[in-house]
Amino acid sequence: MTETAATTERPAKPHLPDAQTVTSVRHWTDRLFSFRVARPQSLRFRSGEFVMIGLMGENGKPLLRAYSIASPAWDEELEFYSIKVPDGPLTSKLQHVKPGDQIILRPKPVGTLVHDALLPGKRLWFLATGTGFAPFASLLREPETWEKYDQVIMMHTCRENAELEYGRALIEGLKEDPLIGELIGDKLLYYPTTTREESPNMGRITDNLASGKVFEDLGLPKINPEEDRAMVCGSLAFNVDVKATLESFGLEEGANSDPKQFVVEKAFVGDGI
């Protein structure tokens, strides 16, 4: 079909601004998928940051949401990890992308889940629910993470076991990573939990922290402001609850301009997108 014939049958698609090509897609469950896109040569970011990505809406205007970059700063492509919402304005369409398709990617990375926003410490806690794992997928593959801390604890909570698979697969591959495998050694402690389906570790992150169960299970001392640092990414309710829990241990929230003991990603997008 010629271009002319195509335009006579249906309106031409609006021009896609800041377009990047999808290179691969993987569906982890009926609610979760990840995909990779070409990385603009000019894009520079710090592991843990996010960008605005999206598609063109029905009204011809870009429909954009904040997505953490799940790949590390040194990767030649950009990876994203997303939920699927059947009637979500963006993900109802985004979940159907295939290699060769294009998405909109605004090349202005920002975010609070970066090493610069934390004071030096001994242990680093990554605390995530659902697709909030994405920025930690980036930071776990960042050499600076392993150079700065003696221990890194990845706590990830989902409703069911299958929803943990993206994170589990990434964790299992870390020690074989030619860039950071040797740096990791025995520094990484992984603590996945579920809240609905039965699994070896159950319960919400806040409950496991507040009760002390995670410290007992991993043989760690109770979180304290002198040694422990934390990064938090999840739903708004999760972020509020974890913030209160960390503050109960004496930790203070920091920012890029004011480093402290923990940081929270407020731009994370959860259900409804």
Helices and strands in order, then pairings?
Elements: H1 3-9, E1 19-27, E2 32-38, E3 50-56, E4 62-68, E5 77-83, H2 91-94, E6 102-110, E7 123-129, H3 134-139, H4 143-148, E8 151-158, H5 165-174, H6 181-184, E9 188-194, H7 205-210, H8 213-218, E10 228-233, H9 236-248, E11 262-264
Parallel strand pairs: 7-8, 7-10, 8-9, 10-11
Antiparallel strand pairs: 1-2, 1-6, 2-5, 3-4, 3-6
Give structural notes.
The structure is a single chain. This protein has 273 residues and is α/β, with parallel strands linked by helices. Helix content is 23%, strand content 28%. It is built from nine helices and eleven strands. The strands form two sheets. Strands 4-3-6-1-2-5 form a six-stranded antiparallel β-sheet. Strand 3 and strand 4 form a beta hairpin. The longest helix is centred in the last third of the chain and has 13 residues, at 236-248. The chain is globular.
**Largest sheet, strands/sense/barrel:** 6 strands, antiparallel
Q: Which strand order do you get reading across the main beta sheet?
A: 4-3-6-1-2-5
Label the structural class: alpha/beta
How many beta-strand elements? 11
SSE string, helices as H and strands as E: HEEEEEHEEHHEHHEHHEHE
- The radius of gyration computed from the alpha-carbon positions, rounded to a whole number of angstroms, is 20 Å
- Beta-strand residue fraction: 25-35%
Q: Give the helix tally.
A: 9
* Oligomer category: single chain
Shape: globular
User: CA-to-CA gap between the ends?
Assistant: 35 Å
